[in-house]
Each structure stands twice: as C-alpha cells, then as structure tokens.
Design brief:
transferase; 8-stranded mixed sheet; methyltransferase activity; 2,3-Dihydroxybiphenyl 1,2-Dioxygenase, domain 1; alpha+beta; 3-demethylubiquinone-9 3-methyltransferase
Length: 323
C-alpha cells in the first residue's frame, strides 16, 4: 500500500550517509522491532544525470539525487543537494514506543536516544518523565534532523492496545505568534480528503492560559492525511526558526486529478512553484509527486523533464520510454 505522505529531508551532500545513519540507529536500538529489510533499510537510490544539469548542479553529475528509505516500516526521502537549506526543529519525527506491546519500551527508547545523539547530536529536551509522557526526549541528530522520542502512556484510561509497537508521526511546530496550527490541520485534512479520502481531524487540545492573545492556539493536535497520521502545535512562545524546503512533505499521486486537487488546494506562493514543489499559506513546503516517482526517475530524460515543469504533468512522465 502506497504511503501517500512522505517526509523529505534535505541533506548537504550527505543524503546516503544520513539515511544509513538513521537506519543503523533504529536497527541497533530496536533490534527485531525495526524489522528486516524492507521494513528498515535503504529501498532505492536515484542519481543525478551525467549531462544537462544547471550550472549550480554540475558538481552532482552522477552523484546521489535521492534516497528512499524506511524506519520501522515508515517511508522517508533524503534529498542530496547543497547548503541552501538547513533542517531545524520546525518539523520533527515523533517516535512512540507502545508499552503495552513492549515490556522493555523504556530501555529501547534510551538506546534509540543514545544512537541518534551519537557523533555530534544534541538534546533539545532532556530524556526524563514529563506530565505528558512517562519518558520523553527531543533531540537533534548530527545532520540537523529533530526527533521526539516517547514511551506512550500506560494509564488504564488510555487505550493503546491497537497501536503499533513502534509508530512514527511527522510533527510540525508553528510559531506561537501566529497560532496557525489548528487552521493548517483543518485545511490539510480538507484538501487531502478531496484528493484521496482517508483523512480526518483527530484530537485537538488548546492552550488555556489567560495570557494567550489567540484563543485558538493549539497545544497539540492530530490528523490523518490520506491515511498517514500527523501532528501539529503552536509554540508556547516565539521561535527563531521556521518551515522551509529543508523538510518538506511529499504527496504521492496516482492520477492527474489528484495532482490538480492537491496543487490547487495548497499552493499559495507562485514564486515557490518549481519542479513539483509548492509552498502553502502556512509556510510549509510540499512536493507533489507521481506515486511511481522512483521508477520514473530512472527513465532517460526524466530529470530534465522535471526541471521544465512547475505542477507535474503525469502524462509527460508516462510518455518517457524505459530504454
């Protein structure tokens, strides 16, 4: 089954190295829970063409273009590019271990915490018990990717019996000055449901503090977009980072109608439209892609074709030969 929403990480010349680092962190910490390939591992590596690159891309001729990889069954994309963008805490991956399925969940979380911090990572919130989780940490690995690591609740009132032993959810942090997280989740659900179905809002908890200027500031909210869970929240204060192409969300489309629905529903910055990329009115970057993009990009002329388009035209990709 196609994972419709795929987080895409921007690396400065180190995409394959970074993907392998993440894969090994999950394998070493989670053992059999991570699963064997293809559950956790590099699935596909595409490369830049040898010819026809723009001047700023010529150094990448024949080098890695994109790495598709999976962590505990969750698919990710690593883009190999330059230093134009840098990952920051505005988008993280929340990894939750279900204590009802794993008796040693705390030990495994500590192992994953150590593995992701290895060789230059840093801790943004210390690994310890919090009001919202019996064990939690927020870390940034040496490549700049941030991770929220948690052992899920085992309270009697919390039904976690149907959750996977390991779940990974993209989590977006909005600047607290704008209070846009709830509106963004509602907008994304509406667009993705029109395009694919299988989209809905989940639990929404709002700030109750009297000093909040915006009554709709989201403490924490969840949604399912085309079958993929996501979460979002408004920061409790200002932040000196924000959304960029450093971490975008790919949307895998089977038909031109799906492409058109997503593009027309999300794109809000015409000057940001390039090669299937767009930016929505909340500042989040999206890549609208053919569902078979990994195979399509192996066809002669596919990369060059991509650079000529803003919104993807699937018929032009399909017309490419496989020779």
């Amino acid at each position: 089954m196609t994972q419709r929403i795929v987080p895409s990480l921007w690396f400065d010349h180190t995409a394959l190295e970074g993907a392998r680092f993440h894969v090994e962190a999950f394998r070493s910490a989670l053992g059999g829970l991570a699963g064997e390939e293809p559950s956790t591992g590099v699935a596909h590596v595409s490369r830049y063409p040898l010819k026809g690159l723009a001047d700023f891309q010529k150094e990448f001729a024949g080098d890695v273009l994109e790495v598709r990889y999976r962590l505990a069954g969750f698919e990710l994309s690593a883009i190999n590019a330059g230093d134009e963008f840098t990952m920051d805490p505005s988008v993280s991956l929340s990894v939750t271990l279900n204590p009802l399925a794993l008796q040693d969940a705390p030990a495994r979380l500590r192992a994953l915490h150590a593995a992701l911090l290895a060789d230059g990572g840093r801790e943004l919130m210390a690994l310890k018990a919090y009001d919202f989780a019996p064990l939690y940490a927020w870390v940034q690995d040496r490549y700049g990717m941030t991770w929220q690591l948690a052992v899920g609740s085992d309270e009697p009132g919390e039904d976690t019996s149907d959750r996977a032993a390991v779940s990974i959810v993209p989590s977006l942090l909005f600047d607290g000055r704008d209070s846009l997280a709830a509106e963004a989740l509602r907008t994304w659900v509406e667009v993705m449901d029109r395009a694919f179905g299988s989209s809905r809002l989940g639990q929404m908890s709002f700030y109750q503090r009297q000093d909040r200027q915006q009554a709709d500031s989201l403490l924490h909210g969840t949604a399912v977009l085309a079958g993929v869970p996501v979460s979002a929240m408004d920061n409790g204060g200002e932040q000196d980072f924000g959304f960029s192409c450093a971490l975008s969300l790919q949307v895998m489309c089977d038909t031109q109608e799906q492409v058109d629905t997503v593009w027309d529903g999300l794109s809000a910055v015409p000057e940001a439209e390039i090669c299937g990329w767009l930016r929505d009115r909340f500042g989040v970057s999206w890549q609208v892609c053919p569902a078979g993009v990994t195979e399509l990009m192996t066809r002669p002329g596919a990369f060059e074709l991509m650079t000529t388009m803003t919104k993807p035209d699937l018929s032009r990709y399909e017309a490419l030969t496989t020779d």
